[in-house]
Sequence to fold (84 residues):
Amino acid sequence: TTWRGINEQSKQVANAMTELGVASGDRVATLAWNSDRHLALYFGVSGSGAVMHTVNPRLFAEQIVYIINHAEDRVLFFDITFAA
Fold:
């Protein structure tokens, strides 16, 4: 992974935010393990005007649901390892 690659991925994320109808100030959550993808999401989401926050995958399911609902997240990005 290079900074150029992260920059390109960030632009793709920002464009995806627009296509999903995410507006400036909307909240976007990530539920994933630490990786370079978090950088692309961080820069892309903030570049689109939305606000990104992370959700700790080590929390209990009930806690994760509470955090996401309380934040009123418009979009949740998650690691494929959490898809069941």
Remarks:
- The chain has a mean pLDDT of 94.
- The chain has three helices and three strands.
- The helical segments are 3-19, 36-47, 61-71.
